Amino acid sequence: MDQIFAALASAPRRKILAYLSETELSAGDIATRFEMTKPSLSKHLRILESAGLIASDKRGQFVFYRLQGDNLANTLASFMQAVCPVSQELKQESRALARKKAVKE
């Protein structure tokens, strides 16, 4: 439980969760949304994954990330995103990305 709260304590990690709220994204897609080094982003992703909040899937040379399904912490994070004004825009972007992917498939 401590790992979960430590993971949620970081604003960039909460933003990553918001981006992943509606769709999975590659590490590169996530990186384009942040002004941080790739090693820093990798550290954030590792922390979220070790806390059980996200899962990764390597496909060829790309690693895709998605929220872990039934998870109390993600339920709480979703609640926080619903009331956080910053997260609303990120969730809208995530929904738009999901729609684009659905059209392509």
TrEMBL record:
Keywords (A to Z) from UniProt: DNA-binding, Transcription, Transcription regulation
Pfam families reported for this sequence: HTH_5
SUPFAM superfamilies assigned: Winged helix' DNA-binding domain
The keyword Transcription regulation appears for this protein: yes
PROSITE patterns according to UniProt: HTH_ARSR_2
The keyword DNA-binding is annotated on this UniProt entry: yes
InterPro entries, per the entry: ArsR-like_HTH (IPR011991), HTH_ArsR_DNA-bd_dom (IPR001845), HTH_MetalResp_TranReg (IPR051081), WH-like_DNA-bd_sf (IPR036388), WH_DNA-bd_sf (IPR036390)
Domain HTH arsR-type: 1-87
Full protein name: Winged helix-turn-helix transcriptional regulator
